[in-house]
Design goal:
This protein is mainly beta. 8% of the residues lie in helices and 30% in strands. It has two helices and nine strands; from the N terminus they run αββαβββββββ. The strands form three sheets. Strands 6-5-4-3-7 form a five-stranded antiparallel sheet. A two-stranded antiparallel ribbon has the order 1-2. It is elongated and about 90 Å long.
Length: 166
């Protein structure tokens, strides 16, 4: 709540910080104006300086391109374990996991066909039993493959052949 002039002590100037925004703008050396912010959004206070910002454009009004060139950015796949595993779905993997504070089994090894990989999990299936395992990457130490793995760089470009590591 802002103090009114009636409640302020006599002969004491009112500091700008105690004034409402519209009075602060009136005292400012930079001229301000208000512009509509869009339907139902009220107004926006902007400085009236020609070089600071382009004029606001109401919603729905087309903007003319004044020579700027916009290059679309293609999303790039990054080199994370989940993406490397996705490039090798269907291959047999040996996954080494560690489970802290587990007295029964601190470390465990899983071997199976790589079926899926997500940000926080790996799904493999045991071809002999048909049993599927959902493993959390939180416990992952490392993974080995008995065959070359696919590792394509740059990801998603589609122009480079797969690079194989042995």
């Amino acid at each position: 709540m802002y103090p009114s002039a009636m409640n302020w002590p006599a002969n004491t100037p009112i500091p700008a910080s105690a004034m409402p925004m519209n009075q602060q703008m009136a005292m400012s050396p930079i001229p301000f104006s208000t512009v509509p912010a869009g339907p139902g959004a009220g107004t926006v206070i902007v400085p009236n300086s020609g070089s600071m910002a382009p004029p606001p454009v109401p919603s729905g009004v087309p903007i003319n391109n004044t020579g700027a060139t916009f290059v679309p950015v293609v999303p790039r796949e990054e080199s994370y374990v989940e993406n490397i595993l996705r490039m090798n779905l269907g291959k047999v993997a040996t996954i080494y996991m560690t489970y802290e504070n587990n007295s029964e089994w601190n470390a465990k090894i899983f071997k199976g066909v790589l079926e899926a990989a997500g940000r926080d999990h790996i799904i493999i299936s045991d071809p002999t039993t048909g049993k599927r395992y959902l493993l959390l990457t939180l416990n992952l130490d490392y993974i080995t493959f008995d065959e070359p793995i696919n590792y394509t760089l740059p990801f998603g470009a589609g122009t480079n052949p797969a690079t194989r590591f042995r």
